[in-house]
Amino acid sequence: MLNSILSLTPDQARALDQYAADCTTGLSPLLARHYQWTRDTFEDADRASSLLQAQWMMQRAQERRATRVLDVGCYTGLSALAWYEATKQTGAEASTLYAAWKAFVSYGCEDRIRVVEARAEEALETLAGPFDLVFVDLEFSAYRPIVGQILDRGLLADNGIILVDNVFARGFVIGEARGNIDPAKLDHWKQSGQVVLDFNAFVAADPRVTVTIWPFFDGIAEIKLRGSERSSK
Amino acid sequence: MLNSILSLTPDQARALDQYAADCTTGLSPLLARHYQWTRDTFEDADRASSLLQAQWMMQRAQERRATRVLDVGCYTGLSALAWYEATKQTGAEASTLYAAWKAFVSYGCEDRIRVVEARAEEALETLAGPFDLVFVDLEFSAYRPIVGQILDRGLLADNGIILVDNVFARGFVIGEARGNIDPAKLDHWKQSGQVVLDFNAFVAADPRVTVTIWPFFDGIAEIKLRGSERSSK
User: Fold this and answer.
1) Which residues sit opposite A164 in a β-bridge?
2) What architecture does CATH give domain B10-232?
3) pTM for the full model?
């Protein structure tokens, strides 16, 4: 349809999202359970990813046969579980910074999820690469230093990818977006839009990498080392 | 953000789409060239996929290391080129039904794209499986018989996927959607919404498969044989 993104009212966006979930029969039961728990338990659950996004992340790791995953930034740990589920066959270790450790233990997932409780910048200094997949989803102001640090320290495998979440900042990268934004948080999102705009420009200008901005969910930047396609496939 | 889909006005959707493309540095030059040619040459170019969707399809085939791809339905052949680009290393053969053969020849891509000019139902009868990836993107009324035929004839590899495009029918699966729809085509899209609704229900009820509806682009159904995850990874 030439454009990548449908125009929808808030009601339509919600209805279509629900419709997609309702028609989906291949969801991971573990992710569905943890998503429901997040929704039911936390007032600010809007911070979590959607279940279909978690399913998408699981699939990316599966198809790339990732064996080492680094998850930078954790709310209730839905992404860490996605990596866990994705890597059952490769026996991968997922390192997540910050965490919902009790939930992981109750699911029996603590065997391959390692939680590092520390500021991301400090934790990164203690980790050794390379990682096949790095997921970055923490405060916007940390995007640039964290991604810079990952590249500078060579933590990304030659054929690895960095996925950075929310690079549309709810649409605010293009100025004021309509979305389902709480009016009280409008200033926060306007500022966030500017911060993410700067981050996206920083990545696009970095000669070490190529980036694709996936125009779905809240925008996901996929960053690869330049030349990695040639050498790996 | 709990929901998978942003709510955007038509202008915002267009701006965000353009922004994503502008920030993307890792696009396939061949896909970009063919996309531009499609835009410049055809008045009904709105039928084509977006460039970022083509890039997404290319990546899916790459990461799955597909070796045999079947592309059912062809407009200017952007999807066939995506499979071609994705499978350079595996040397895959992409079979596309209907086609833009001259363009393929001018790019030097005719070596591994086989064009079958026939009605899809008839062409499918002549093809032998299994295919690792099948892309279905033709008139909505053909979705159900074509996918049924692919499953009945065992054309899908055990670990293969069928991707069916436009399963949101521009949002009309949930009733009237706002989108960028030409008012003259409103009835067409309302009817299409109903046809696709029936198709999605048909797939969700088929015990042979699981389906995930990706809530991006115009909705993409990903269909897998049940149990294929266990056996293959």
Assistant:
1) A136, A221
2) 3-Layer(aba) Sandwich (3.40)
3) 0.87
